[in-house]
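Running this now, will post back.
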Amino acid sequence: MYLILIMNKLHPGAKWKFRVRSFLLFGLLGIIIALWIISPLIGLLLSFVSLTWDSILRIILFSLLGYLILVIIASEIYSRMFYNNWFYEFTASELKLERGIIWKKYSHIPYARIQNIELHRGVIARMLGFSTILVQTAGSSGNVRAEGNIPAVELNEADKIRKFLMKKITSTKRKKDL
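Update: finished.
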């Protein structure tokens, strides 16, 4: 008899978390590009073409509006793709995590290595009704971030997962002690 394991999806509210993060990322990237590349090009253009201050202001305003629309579209595409490519699964011996758009990252965390499970609820998570599960392992003592991170799980499900993992931790520690 075969055991079929299904990868779990994140809470739909995770898209908002990913949207905010990508909006900030693309926004900062745009500011850096504008300061580094576009500013010298505008200065070069203005030295060859005589424009009034009104037309310069209009060009800047339309450029900012265009970039804002571009950032919103790119953030939406990124957040949907990131959400659709994020899975987690609990097997008999380990927690499996799969994530990534272009570069896929696969993590396998044996229950025997898990030291602590934290539930984290930020502002967006509280508004949308989900928790982030942080799984800290024995091998990540110098690392500030948790090795296992499930960014958006419904509140009741997160508590069930925490209890499940705590049972797995205590059962594997008992087996080691025997």
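The longest strand covers residues 130-137. More later if anyone needs it.
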